[in-house]
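From the methods appendix. Each design record in this collection lists the tokenized structure first, followed by the designed amino acid sequence. Records were kept in a plain field format so they could be parsed without special tools. The example shown here is representative of the layout used throughout.

RECORD:
FOLD TOKENS (109 positions):
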């Protein structure tokens, strides 16, 4: 099995304002978490299940999230899965593209 494909598309609500930083080379970086919910039907009963997904956006995507994103704003992210290096590795989505499906929800400066 090949590891050539690693694509993720996820949407959800931002839980809080993104945290700004930079890469070692000075590229803008924004870390944030979105809550993605779905409805499952188990033995005829509907259950809403939510996942909190860590996201890191870079460059233009980071600038967009920092400018327009805030808690409760819906975000659509396309990217790939990656893993934090460190004593407790955790998975996150590194973005290739960030979008805001509902412009009216965006924070305007």
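DESIGN:
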């Amino acid at each position: 099995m090949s590891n050539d494909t690693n694509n993720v598309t996820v949407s959800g609500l931002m839980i809080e304002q993104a945290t700004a930083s930079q890469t070692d080379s000075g590229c803008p970086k924004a870390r944030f978490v979105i809550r993605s919910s779905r409805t499952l039907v188990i033995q005829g009963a509907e259950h809403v299940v939510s996942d909190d997904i860590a996201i890191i956006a870079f460059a233009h995507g980071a600038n967009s999230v920092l400018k327009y994103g805030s808690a409760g704003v819906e975000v659509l992210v396309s990217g790939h899965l990656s893993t934090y290096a460190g004593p407790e590795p955790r998975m996150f989505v590194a973005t290739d593209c960030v979008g805001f499906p509902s412009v009216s929800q965006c924070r305007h400066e």
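APPENDIX NOTE: The mean pLDDT is 89.
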